[in-house]
Amino acid sequence: MATTSTTPATPAAAAPAAPHYPDQVTGMYILAKALKNIGIDTMYGLVGIPVTDFSYLAQEQGIRFVGFRHEQQAGMAAATHGYVTGKPGVLLTVSSLGFLNGLTATINATVNCYPMIQISGSSEREPIDLEQGAYEGLDQLNVAKGLVKAAYRVNRPQDIPTAVARAYRAAISGRPGGVYLDITTPCLGQVVDADEAEKWFFTPVDPQAKTYATPESIDRAVELLKSAKRPAIVLGKGAAFIQADETIKQFVESTGLPFFPMSMAKGLMPDTHPQSALSCRSTIMEEADVVILIGARLNWLLSRGHGKWNPDGKFIQLDVQATEMDCNRPIDAPVVGDIEQSLKDMMTKLQGQKLNMDPTWMPSLQAQTKEKNAKFAERLASFANSQPMTHWTALNALKPLIESNPDIILVNEGANTLDDTRDTIDMSVPRSRIDCATWAIMGMGIGSTIGAAVATGRPVVAIEGDSAFGFSGMDFATICRFQLPCTVVVFNNGGIYNGVGVNMANNGDPAPTTLDINAHYEKISEAFGGAAYYVTTPEELTKAFTEAVASKKPALINVQLAADSGKESGHIGYLNPESIQHVTV
């Protein structure tokens, strides 16, 4: 039976007064004002030595500070902020291990092409360089270099505005990514004349300058497309990030080509669009003779262009990064430059010209889509009343509720929870699905939920596997503290993949994949004043979810699944080396 409880929130204590200097300012003040001057209005982080006072000064400048319980989650929030807004999200951390905790998210932002800036305080240079045992004496700049898009250290307060401008430009220009900004403790604390400091501020001109594809590359792509009998489009999250939604829609519909989106591009074009070939991904890979990659990379998520792909197929690739071309497979028509302008140029060239597409190609894909979708719906419905619930039972209940509310941003992670949710729930609005993306890392869920809610003000629903939730569950407290419109749904099957792992040593310890099938995750919400639900039936889940989303307040729903619901590695079990179950010596 469903249970719910709420606890009234306790007002936060008044913050101590930020330090003021009538005629002088510190490096901390200069950093806060430089960020505000560049347009930063939100910062995520966790404070301590040496950045606590800076966080107060940032608030004084009008920058919203969202404080977390763990730097990695604050970083995931900043990265998500960058993805959904198109402007760099900012992470603030302390030195040493705080810096390292946050760096995971900054590296992930770089890999996923999200604009983000991590700012960390660091210890004074001299004892670090001589390895004399400084407080938290990690050489942070050299750790970060090579892992992020750019990294800079600031030793003098007069260089802070320049460093902020360079970090912003690096994060947002070309292919976006994560940037690390190292501010030493002496620089943060140095006192300078206020009048002199004012001379150092400036506003960068055109920090996000665009580059455009050559006419020759446009002509080459158009000619190749015109020759195609079975062309198709793959939409990547890069296409969603650029916020050229109308241009992409116009290109897809004016060409009449079938398309399928990568996971985070779902909703850029509605999954239910007549040209959607989402259910025919394998057919396109095997049979398409020309494929247009729009903001998508031929990485492991697309079998690096090999495997099922037609060996005789050709690729047109639209990307802002020249080095992405020929990464895994020769690109026959590389189009390097601003994607939106490239699409406009291609449409201009195609005006009045007829494509050579086989007239049976699209109808055959539509027929396959209809058949496969009907079979999937039948299979999903067959689990509707399973007891105890499975992933499919829970998703059968959630699917109509989420799809009927397109304003919801869906955050999703886990193994089976990720794969099954992606396959089940159709998206219709761009940048409304956020998941573990290119590196498929677990633990991004609650941070991304917070970042999406803060950046957009929209309701956010996180569907989390119980293992994935465990990485970041404590930061549900942040959702409650800021009273964000977030509903977190935990699918509890008691383990990593499932809760029926067997310890082969039979020594009484749980198996490596076993967690706790009886865990009451909803108590975390109750502890911090959010709404808490424990559900065991689809009817209880429907009622709890409807109530939670309508409240526009923090809520956590613990969905009790069967321990044997789920399989190892979800859809990517082939990546695991073949295991040896028994070894006899």
Word description of this protein:
The termini are far apart. The chain has a seven-stranded mixed beta sheet with strand order 1-19-20-18-17-15-16, with helices on both faces. Strands 4-3-5-6-8-7 form a six-stranded parallel beta sheet, sandwiched between helices. The chain has 585 residues and is an alpha/beta fold. The relative contact order is 0.11. The radius of gyration is 25 Å and the shape is globular. 38% of the residues lie in helices and 16% in strands. Helix 1 (27-37) packs parallel to helix 7 (160-172), helix 3 runs parallel beside helix 4 (97-112) and helix 10 (215-227) packs across helix 14.
CATH class of the largest domain: Alpha Beta
Spatial strand order of the main sheet: 1-19-20-18-17-15-16
Q: How many discrete structural domains?
A: 3
Given the helix and strand composition, which structural class is it? Answer: alpha/beta
Please state the overall shape, judged from the principal axes of the Cα atoms: globular
CATH superfamily of the largest domain: Thiamin diphosphate (ThDP)-binding fold, Pyr/PP domains
Largest sheet: 7 strands, mixed
Compute the number of helices. 22
Distance between the termini: 51 Å
**What's the average pLDDT?**
93
Query: Which residues sit in consecutive blocks of at least 5 with pLDDT less than 50?
Result: 6-10, 579-585
The amount of beta strand, in percent, is: 15-25%
CATH architecture of the largest domain: 3-Layer(aba) Sandwich
Task: Examine the coordinates and then state which fold CATH places here, giving the name of the CATH topology of the largest domain.
Answer: Rossmann fold
